[in-house]
UniProtKB/TrEMBL annotation:
InterPro entries: ARM-like, ARM-type_fold, IMB1_TNPO1-like_TPR, Importin_beta, Importin_rep_4, Importin_rep_5, Importin_rep_6, TOG
Top-level division of the source organism's lineage: Eukaryota
GO CC terms of this entry: cytoplasm; nucleus
Subcellular location as annotated: Cytoplasm; Nucleus
The keyword Amino-acid biosynthesis is annotated on this UniProt entry: no
Protein name: TOG domain-containing protein
Keyword Repeat: yes
Residues annotated as domain TOG: 369-608
GO-annotated biological processes: protein import into nucleus
Keywords for this protein: Cytoplasm, Nucleus, Protein transport, Repeat, Transport
Length: 1103
């Protein structure tokens, strides 16, 4: 029965007809009428009328369109005239109206006979259900309204004799799983069990999708009761595979992939069978590629989320490697001689949906998750045979596999690089161009993944093989060889490259004459990288290259040449950076003028020269130094335009708008309460780049950039700290702030009124961000911004209010951190033996460790600059230090110990007031099994001896036995333990120097201390240890004189390790000379027993 008068329905019918008109003018008028006369003035009548049209119209098109429009209007957000809050249109209606419309929607859904119309009704029902789960909607009596009738209606529909009705019910459940409350879970289990066994395929698939959505909404404890459904879910796959129903199989696999991502362990009891089933689907060529790739994705998902389960399965790794390699041979169909491939100039053609790319990407994931120990044996069972195969596709696949696995298997493969290169290098002379291309690809990837080793040990194999490929007959092979050389050269030392430069640069310059523009562009990129690595030695080719580049840049700015010109700018400025201002002479000014000319002629938004130009200006700033300052007036306006750009954000509540944005590049869509927020990321990327460049200017021009600092700080850097649309902008802004302060300080002085005004405004904003930043990773950057800014301003730059705010924000951070740690501990308890934390958890732990580390540095910097004035604020967190220092977690103990060290170091005797919080943690820390914690505790004892005065002297001397224990632990000199050992050595030296009156048997202790040398890792510990050694030498202490030769060797080792430098090194060298003379040592004989490098270093010091 209609609740609205007939004339309303007449008007509404006319409106609906107008909105569906093919006449643009009529449709536009109807849209205007909809918004001004209905949505704005009578939304209640509109939604009720649409619901009644859905229920009563004889036209199925009108019913369907009414449902679509109902859904669109009900989700629009506007200010509620009653509460003043932003609410969706439906929730602004009164409770009786909402209830009436809901009832009509359910009746429509239950009674509609046309499946496609019912689906539209289901979407409308799901949208209203979402609003009830996302928002707290109240009944007139104040209780929460959850639309209880909906679940009963859906349960009834799921039992309907009509398969399409059953499917529709599960579609609604998939969209809004939140309507199922805890008390319904047992009933729901039965509904899902029945739906998964439904005779209709569509219902089974809808049930799986609904179950997957519902399961993801549960907490881990609630999930377990649904594990029993897994065998039935997997049984849905078999008939689909047997029928070769690729489309439905693809959907089913997607639902299972989502389940595997959330709770991989639920598949534990059926995993072996699932592996065999999935492998049979991957190799079934009767299925579409998408279905086969989804089966592969399912298996790869288990490697991502539960590598332990995969490693334990006897067939998983071998079968997956075999199938990946097989898929990787599915390349170049109908193009056996690569004629089409050679002719294509679109070298970045997207092949992400191809079988061979799916295989490569999966091999990469398997390598990273399973590791070389597991993956390499089955892989290298195949690769040597494939490399020797007569089929070029096999050879290509083998090389691409090496590219794919080298990062994940880096540790094991690095020791076998000789053998791997024996497989790869001959491919550079293969008769087939795609195999040669793949060989270049493998060498390029290996140059990155085994950086250092490839360049230092294997340059004699790689470069003589790769450089000739620049002369290949195929442009795509030439270009890829040049790209591989970028990877090799950017990690190479200039001494490594020098013997090859003549041939390399000559070949690259020849490529600049190539007919294919993409080859010229790549050659320019490679030349730029070679120049960057070769540095001043590249000067030999400067005279030949720079005029060529100037010539390119002075050509007309034609659209098709813009990327080439951009690469030429990049190349010219990197060469400028390599050879320096003196070598360039007047060319430097000419290049800057050319860049200015290019900039003034950029008119199109999509001109690639614009983004390249930003980096080019930054390089020329580094080349010219203060001589660049006059050019800032031309450079800054376009840069500031990018840096101050606002976020382009759109709320999309219309499917057409969403679809349109999806087609455009440079947009990111973020789901939000049934709608999408569209963020134009291309604008934000430019903004980030501009902020980075401003930082480069401030850093390199120092006081010369000061005239721009206030504007940049106020309009870019400080607002950027709270730019929540884009994390990289916030991070770049955080890095800019201290550099801008340093620039301004250099020009005006730290005590000037101008600087203090800038400082006060800036530090207030930085402290504010410490309290509001939501992202853990970015919060660590904000703490870095804070302590670097304090370091710039120096002594006593923080007021009591500043320090109080800092402590308040730190307390909030520590509370939140403890909650996260507790949650992770609970999740760890729920994991089964052998289950590893997922990648997200591992990243979260790393982010928290970084955050604690940067907080530590912030505390350190405040103590360093504020001294004892920080103590009254610092002690507000004493309970946290006590909790952390006794925690089972190594990271928390280290955090607290480092802060206690700062109290000792910067507050001197006043730190004794807190000895009840410090003494026991230092004692426990010296015995801690975590080397970093022993190091922190040993350092603290040394600082107590050095800075603590009489109050700490007794404790310091009493710690000697424990410090010696640290130096005598097994593996005390291993990489992990060396810093703790060397800090113990330095601390014993401090105690013997500053507190020797409290030490019994001093001479025995000195003799034992000599055994704790040398200090060859820790540059902070070495000066204290060797200063004390020099003191003993000057006094001709018997402990030194009786072991003079060893003491000389200890000095030599420290000089070679560069832990002694500058004046300190000279002082120790003087003492060592005296030791040689006094003890009558033969220095040449002593040196002869040392390695050649050490001999050379020591002779340079001793003359």
């Amino acid at each position: 029965m209609s609740l609205l008068p007939p004339e309303v329905h007449t008007a509404l019918t006319q409106l609906l007809q107008g909105l569906q008109s093919t006449d643009n003018t009529v449709r536009t008028q109807a849209e205007e009428q909809l918004n001004t006369e209905w949505v704005s003035k009578r939304p209640d009548m509109l939604l009720m009328g649409l619901a009644e049209q859905m229920q009563g119209s004889q036209e199925e098109g009108t019913r369907a369109f009414s449902a679509v429009l109902f859904r669109r209007i009900s989700t629009r957000t506007s200010k509620d005239p009653n509460s003043g809050e932003q609410k969706e249109t439906f929730l602004q209606l009164g409770s009786p109206q909402r209830a009436e419309i809901r009832q009509k929607l359910l009746l429509c859904h239950a009674n509609e006979q046309k499946a496609h119309v019912r689906n539209k009704f289901a979407d409308a029902v799901a949208e209203i259900a979402r609003q009830y789960t996302d928002e707290t909607v109240l009944n007139p009596d104040g209780s929460r309204d959850t639309w209880p009738e909906l679940l009963n209606a859906l349960f009834a529909s799921s039992q309907s004799p009509d398969a399409a009705m059953r499917e529709s019910a599960f579609r609604i459940l998939e969209t809004t799983p939140g309507i199922i409350e805890k008390q319904h879970e047992d009933v729901v289990l039965g509904v899902f069990q029945k739906g998964i066994k439904d005779p209709a395929t569509e219902v089974r698939l809808a049930t799986m999708a609904a179950f997957s959505s519902f399961f993801q909404s549960l907490n881990k404890k609630s999930q377990q009761k649904y594990f029993a459904l897994i065998p039935d879910i997997l049984n849905t796959l078999i008939p689909l595979k047997e029928a070769s129903d690729s489309e439905q199989l693809t959907k089913a696999l997607m639902a299972i992939i989502e389940l595997a991502e959330v709770a991989s362990r639920m598949f534990k009891n059926v995993f072996g069978d699932l592996v065999q089933l999935s492998i049979s689907m991957i190799q079934d060529t009767n299925l579409d590629d998408q279905a086969r790739q989804n089966a592969l994705e399912l298996m790869a998902t288990f490697a991502d989320y539960n590598p332990t389960m995969c490693k334990k399965d006897p067939n998983y790794t071998e079968q997956m490697v075999t199938q990946c390699l097989s898929l990787m041979t599915d390349v170049g169909a109908d193009d056996d001689d690569a004629e089409e491939w050679n002719a294509s100039e679109d070298v970045d053609f997207d092949e992400s949906d191809s079988n061979h790319v799916a295989g490569e990407q999966t091999m990469d994931r398997l390598a990273n998750k399973l590791g070389g120990q597991i993956l390499l044996p089955p892989t290298f069972t195949w690769l040597p045979r494939m490399i020797q195969s007569l089929s070029w596709r096999d050879r290509h696949a083998a090389l691409m596999a090496i590219s794919a696995i080298s990062e994940g298997c880096q540790e094991l493969m690095e020791g076998e690089l000789d053998k791997v290169l024996d497989l790869v290098v001959p491919a550079l002379q293969d008769p087939h161009p795609r195999v040669r291309w793949a060989g270049c690809n493998a060498l390029g990837q290996m140059s990155t993944d085994f950086k250092g080793t490839m360049q230092s040990k294997y340059h004699g194999i790689v470069l003589p093989a790769l450089i000739p490929v620049l002369g290949a007959p195929e442009p795509r092979v030439q270009s890829h060889a040049a790209a591989a050389l970028v990877n090799f050269c950017e990690e190479a030392e200039k001494e490594t490259l020098e013997p090859y430069l003549d041939t390399l640069v000559e070949r690259l310059m020849h490529l600049l004459q190539n007919q294919k523009r993409f080859v010229q562009e790549q050659a320019l990129s490679t030349i730029a990288t070679v120049a960057d690595s070769a540095e001043s030695t590249f000067g030999k080719w400067y005279g030949n290259l720079m005029p060529l580049l100037f010539n390119v840049l002075q050509q007309p700015n034609e659209r098709e040449l813009r990327l080439l010109r951009a690469k030429a700018m990049e190349c010219a400025t990197l060469i400028a950076l390599a050879v320096g201002k003196e070598r360039m002479n007047q060319d430097a000014i000419q290049l800057v003028n050319i860049l200015g000319h290019v900039q003034s002629n950029i008119v199109d938004e999509d001109d690639p020269q614009e983004s390249y130009l930003l980096h080019c200006w930054g390089r020329m700033c580094r080349v010219l130094g203060q001589d660049f300052v006059p050019y800032l007036q031309a450079v800054m306006p376009p840069l500031m335009k990018l840096a101050t750009a606002k976020a382009d954000v759109q709320l999309l509540d219309d499917e057409e708008n969403v679809a349109q944005i999806e087609q455009e590049e440079g947009w990111e869509l973020v789901p939000l309460k049934g709608k999408y927020i569209g963020i134009k990321t291309s604008t934000l990327d430019d903004k980030f780049m501009a902020v980075e460049l401003l930082t480069v200017y401030a850093q390199n021009l120092d006081g010369g950039f000061a005239p721009y600092v206030a504007e940049v700080m106020n309009t870019v850097a400080v607002p950027g700290l709270a730019f929540f649309f884009h994390d990289p902008v916030r991070v770049a802004s955080a890095k800019a702030v201290p550099q801008l302060l340093a620039s301004f300080k250099a020009a005006h002085g730290r005590d000037s009124a101008q600087y203090n005004q800038l400082w006060e405004a800036t530090i207030a904003k930085v402290l504010e961000v410490l309290e509001t930043e939501p992202a853990i990773e970015t919060l660590a950057e904000m703490y870095q911004c804070f302590y670097e800014s304090v370091e710039v301003s120096g002594k006593d730059c923080l007021s009591n209010d500043h320090m109080a705010i800092f402590i308040s924000s730190a307390e909030t951070v520590l509370k939140d951190y403890q909650v996260r740690v507790q949650k992770r501990a609970e999740e760890a308890n729920e994991r089964e033996d052998g289950d590893e934390p997922d990648e997200e958890t591992q990243f979260a732990i790393e982010d928290d460790q970084t955050l604690l580390s940067d907080m530590n540095k912030a505390f350190h910097t405040i103590f360093k600059n504020q001294g004892q004035s920080f103590l009254p604020h610092w002690e507000r967190l004493l309970n946290y230090y006590d909790l952390f220092v006794s925690n089972q977690d190594d990271t928390q103990r280290q955090w607290a110990l480092c802060i206690l060290d700062d109290v000792l170091e910067f507050c001197g005797p006043a730190s004794w007031n807190y000895h009840s919080h410090i003494v026991q943690p230092l004692i426990a820390g010296m015995r801690d099994n975590a080397p970093a914690n022993r190091q922190a505790a040993c350092y603290g004892v040394g600082v107590a001896a050095h800075k603590g005065g009489e109050a700490w002297a007794e404790f310091a001397s009493g710690s000697l036995p424990m410090l010696f224990e640290v130096t005598q632990r097994p593996n005390a000199r291993s990489d992990d333990d060396a810093f703790a050992t060397e800090n113990a050595c330095a601390s014993i030296a401090k105690i013997l120097h500053y507190n020797n009156t409290k030490v019994q048997n001093v001479q025995d202790v000195v003799t034992a201390w000599i055994e704790t040398l040398p200090v060859v890792n820790d540059e902070e510990a070495a000066p204290y240890a060797y200063s004390f050694l020099a003191e003993l030498i000057e006094r001709q202490n018997p402990a030194v004189m009786s072991q003079a030769a060893r003491c000389f060797t200890f000095v030599a080792q420290a000089l070679e390790a560069e832990t002694l430098q500058g004046n300190m090194a000279q002082r120790i060298v003087g003492a060592a000379r005296k030791l040689v003379q006094t003890a009558g040592l033969d220095a040449n004989q002593l040196l002869a027993g040392l390695p050649p490098d050490t001999q050379q270093t020591v002779r340079a010091f001793f003359g």
